């Protein structure tokens, strides 16, 4: 093999190893990944929501829906598109402290309108907070909520990970970190 090809293969191998190690440790990886049960038949369809609103005379449901579903960590919060939801234990108030590079890796759970209560979620714990840019972030039990940018639908890859000065944890339906 030529030297250029060897270098390319070495760089590719290093990049693949870095991608695999980007979040968590071997201890964080469960033996078996499980997908959450669908929140409701048909999933999250804004066209269905708008059609239902037109038929019933109720306003369109535009807010982000939060649901509880089973995972390798027990019942935890997901959005209606089966994206796992985390809290950042560094945040001791309802205000977000995750901006810039933090918010790129851990995007906030945003909503247009009031967040919607899905299956297994306590409506009294669901709320919002305003971010510095004026957008509205969903909170649960007073904690601002986040996604992990590389989580596939229905999977939790970054439970109990320390980054950006705190620990990232999935959220149980009672509002506690798992």
Protein described:
With 178 residues, the chain is α+β, with helices and mostly antiparallel strands. The protein has one domain. It is built from three helices and nine strands, in the order H-H-E-E-E-H-E-E-E-E-E-E. The strands form three sheets. Strands 2-1-4 form a three-stranded mixed sheet, with no helix packed on it. Strands 3-9-8 form a three-stranded antiparallel sheet, with no helix packed on it. A three-stranded antiparallel sheet has the order 5-6-7, with no helix packed on it. It is globular.
Shape: globular
Give the tally of β-strands: 9
The helix-strand sequence is HHEEEHEEEEEE
What's the average pLDDT?
Answer: 78
| Tally of alpha and pi helices | 3
Q: Provide the gyration radius in Å.
A: 19 Å
**Spatial order of the strands forming the largest sheet:** 2-1-4
Number of domains: 1
**Assembly annotation:** single chain
Spans of at least 5 consecutive residues with low confidence: 1-21, 24-59
Strand content: 15-25%
For the sheet with most strands, the description reads: 3 strands, mixed
From the N-terminal CA to the C-terminal CA, the straight-line distance is 50 Å
Coarse structural class: alpha+beta
């Amino acid at each position: 093999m030529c030297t250029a090809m060897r270098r390319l293969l070495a760089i590719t191998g290093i990049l693949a190893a870095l991608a695999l190690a980007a979040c968590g440790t071997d201890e964080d990886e469960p033996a078996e990944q499980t997908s959450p049960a669908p929140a409701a038949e048909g999933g999250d369809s804004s066209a269905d929501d708008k059609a239902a609103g037109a038929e019933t005379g109720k306003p369109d449901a535009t807010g982000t829906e939060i649901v509880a579903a089973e995972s390798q960590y027990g019942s935890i919060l997901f959005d209606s598109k089966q994206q796992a939801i985390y809290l950042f234990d560094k945040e001791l108030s309802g205000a977000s402290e995750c901006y810039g590079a933090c918010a790129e890796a851990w995007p906030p759970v945003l909503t247009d309108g009031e967040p919607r209560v899905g299956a297994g979620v306590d409506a009294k714990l669901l709320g919002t907070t305003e971010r510095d840019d004026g957008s509205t972030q969903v909170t649960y039990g007073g904690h601002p909520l986040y996604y992990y940018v590389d989580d596939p639908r229905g999977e939790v890859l970054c439970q109990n990970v320390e980054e950006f000065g705190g620990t990232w944890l999935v959220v149980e339906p009672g509002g506690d970190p798992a």
